[in-house]
Each structure stands twice: as structure tokens, then as C-alpha cells.
């Protein structure tokens, strides 16, 4: 959620063909690499808070809540009820979150996988670089929230399985990525992490990232990037990364430790991708070009949905109004100015890296702890 919302999703267990206590299946074996019967799922969804003066609610996210859809997905997939915990809004106090997560993890066995999902607000202390998730009863003290290290501590101390995949769709969600990279080398748990944003960045208030996850697990052909008939872990990560960059202008993060199979097959493709549907394009309208996705095709005509607009603006366009999306890209080392989200003023910075229209920048006079990824329209060449 924009500014300080967290949709921390720690989702999806991968273990079906177990050899020597470890899951080994992937798409090349022609079978799925997760077994619902041995997967534990922990979902927390908070869209309104006890302290509404501190944590604003998200009424626009209430209809068709994706946290509910994730819970429904895992139930339908066959995760046993005793292995699935879903805490929504007022149920998700800090005490109950910690208690029920511990209980769930204590029931796990070797060779299993854990799934944890959190939706709500989050916040980062820029001095300490620590990040917390706001429980329903969180107050104005940092420690009243659920700290990112606490999540890993619970997994390390109570999880008897092998793999933990952490997915976050929220502001500063990359804190999970950073923590996993620190913990993984000395941990008995194999971590995978996919997040909607970099640790220092806020995230969109839309469900774009979680929609990408659902598209992958549901076996939609658009996520099968290599066309082998299966949706793999790395494909869900890449698909989400592309969607977030194109639609929201933010950088998703993906990490998998050495023993975590990036080619793990999470879903079999139910229906092949329709050619040209789902393409990321630019469409001309009154002399300006706007980012859009194709949603239907009829001959040489495509129906498009414009980024950031409602479906009321969807329209059919011909080839003269559509072009591939080739975003402008600055080079590493370029001296630029960046518009900072918090005050919408421009500040001098240097390009550290660029990808698909996004740029990682380092602000003049600051170290890497203040680096950010910024989207199109928020970077311009510096005029000396």
C-alpha cells in the first residue's frame, strides 16, 4: 500500500517429490513442486486499524480482498484446515499473530514448506533501517508492530520444515529480501523471497503484485514465460517484476538461496496465452503516448486498458496508434535530478543501475542506505 502499507505475503509451499528429506521436483520433471497436504499457510490481512488516527484504512481494497482470495486458493488447492490460519483485521493483534504463527510452525515436520501472508501497513525507521508491520493494535511506538526480524526468528526457532518462501506486496517490502540474504548462509531453512518493492521504497496501494501471484498459481498462460506448460517460481517473480515496473513504476525484488529451486513448478498452465493479449504497449491519444496493456484482439485491432485509469476508458485501437513499450533509460553514472515522493521536489543524484524504465539512484551527499528505485517521469538529466 502506498506510503506505509504492507501486504507482506509469505506464500506457497513447494514439496512434492521428496528424496532424502528434500523436495526435488521442478517443471522439467513434468510434475508440480508443492504438495498442499504438507504445506502450512499463515495469512494476516489488515485493512483497518484500532488506531485509525495513525493508520489509515484502505476501503478501496475491501471489495474482492486478495488476502481472502489467497486463503480460498490454498483451501481449494487442498491445504488442510488445521494447516491454514487466516487472521483478518481486528483478529490480527500482535499477541495473536505471534501466538498462532508459533503454534502453526511447531506442528511442521521435515521436508515441509511454510506459507505466511501479511496485508496492511508497514513502516521503516530511516535511522536504524529497521522495518515493522502494523498489527491491528499497533500504536505510535515502533516496537508495537511486528518486526521483520521477528518473522525470521519465528521461522528459525519453530519451523521444522525445509523451505520458507516470503512474498511481500507492500511499502518497504524489500526488508524481507535484505533479511533473508543475511540469514540464509547460516540457516537450516532455505529461503525464497519475492517482494513488490525495494526496502527503501514505498509501494502501490493497488493489488498489482498480489494479482500477479494469483495469476501464477492459478496457471494463467501469461505467466508461463518459457512456454513449457508450467508456471515456475522464477516466472512468477519475473512476471510480477515486469507488472510492477510497467504499471506502478516500482522495482520488485527476488531472492532464492542456493538450495531453493528457482525452476520449481507451482502450477500447470490451464489455458495457453492468447497471442498479443497481455502485451505491455504504448497507445497514442490526442498526440501523447500512454502506457497500456492489451486485453483483447480482433484482427489488427486491439482493445487496451490504460495504466491508472478505470475500465471505462478501455478502447479499441488500430496499429497506427500502438507501439511497443521501449522506456527511456539513463546510463550508470549519469548525473541526474530525482523527484522525491515525500515532497515532490527535485534532488541531485547519480544513476546506480537501470532496468525497464526504472532507475536505482544514490542521492548526492548520502550513502547507500538512502538509495531508491524510481519510476518513469521521476528522473531527469541534471543541468549544470
Automatic annotation (TrEMBL):
One of its GO terms (molecular function) is cysteine-type endopeptidase activity. InterPro entries: Agenet-like_dom, Chromo-like_dom_sf, EF_Hand_1_Ca_BS, Pept_C14_caspase. GO terms for biological process: proteolysis. Coiled coil: none annotated. Residues 68-219 form the Peptidase C14 caspase domain. Residues 1-20 form the signal peptide. Pfam families: Agenet (PF05641), Peptidase_C14 (PF00656). Residues 278-327 form the Agenet-like domain. Keywords: Signal. This is Uncharacterized protein. It comes from Lacipirellula parvula. The lineage of its organism: Bacteria, Pseudomonadati, Planctomycetota, Planctomycetia, Pirellulales.
Amino acid at each position: 500500500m502506498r506510503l506505509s502499507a504492507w501486504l507482506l505475503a509469505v506464500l506457497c509451499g513447494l514439496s512434492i517429490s521428496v528424496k532424502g528429506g528434500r523436495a526435488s521436483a521442478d517443471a522439467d520433471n513434468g510434475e508440480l513442486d508443492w504438495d498442499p497436504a504438507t504445506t502450512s499457510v499463515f495469512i494476516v490481512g489488515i485493512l483497518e486499524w484500532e488506531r485509525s488516527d495513525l493508520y489509515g484504512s484502505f476501503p478501496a481494497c475491501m471489495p474482492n480482498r486478495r488476502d481472502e482470495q489467497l486463503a480460498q486458493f490454498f483451501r481449494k488447492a487442498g491445504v488442510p484446515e488445521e494447516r491454514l490460519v487466516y487472521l483478518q483485521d481486528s483478529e490480527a493483534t500482535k499477541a495473536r499473530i505471534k501466538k498462532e504463527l508459533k503454534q502453526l510452525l511447531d506442528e511442521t515436520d521435515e521436508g515441509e514448506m511454510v506459507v505466511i501472508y501479511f496485508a496492511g501497513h508497514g513502516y521503516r525507521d530511516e535511522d536504524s533501517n529497521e522495518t515493522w508491520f502494523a498489527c491491528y493494535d499497533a500504536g505510535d511506538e515502533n516496537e508495537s508492530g511486528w518486526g521483520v526480524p521477528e518473522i525470521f526468528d519465528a521461522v528459525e526457532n519453530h519451523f521444522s520444515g525445509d523451505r520458507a518462501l516470503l512474498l511481500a506486496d507492500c511499502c518497504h517490502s524489500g526488508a524481507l529480501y535484505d533479511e533473508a540474504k543475511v540469514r540464509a548462509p547460516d540457516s537450516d531453512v532455505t529461503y525464497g523471497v519475492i517482494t513488490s518493492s525495494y526496502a527503501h521504497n514505498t509501494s502501490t496501494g493497488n493489488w498489482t503484485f498480489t494479482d500477479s501471484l494469483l495469476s501464477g498459481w492459478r496457471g494463467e498462460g501469461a505467466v508461463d514465460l518459457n512456454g513449457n506448460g508450467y508456471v515456475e517460481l522464477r516466472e512468477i517473480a519475473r512476471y510480477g517484476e515486469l507488472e510492477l515496473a510497467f504499471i506502478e513504476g516500482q522495482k520488485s525484488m527476488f531472492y532464492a538461496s542456493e538450495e531453493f529451486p528457482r525452476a520449481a513448478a507451482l502450477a500447470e498452465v490451464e489455458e495457453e496465452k492468447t497471442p498479443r493479449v497481455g502485451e505491455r504497449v504504448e497507445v497514442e491519444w490526442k498526440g501523447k503516448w500512454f502506457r497500456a496493456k492489451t486485453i483483447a484482439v480482433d484482427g489488427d485491432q486491439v482493445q487496451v486498458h490504460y495504466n491508472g485509469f478505470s475500465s471505462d476508458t478501455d478502447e479499441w485501437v488500430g496499429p497506427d496508434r500502438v507501439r511497443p513499450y521501449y522506456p527511456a533509460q539513463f546510463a550508470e553514472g549519469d548525473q541526474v535530478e530525482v523527484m522525491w515522493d515525500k515532497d515532490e521536489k527535485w534532488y541531485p543524484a547519480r544513476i546506480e543501475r537501470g532496468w525497464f524504465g526504472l532507475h536505482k539512484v544514490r542521492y548526492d551527499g548520502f550513502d547507500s542506505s538512502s538509495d531508491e528505485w524510481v519510476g518513469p517521469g521521476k528522473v531527469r538529466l541534471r543541468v549544470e
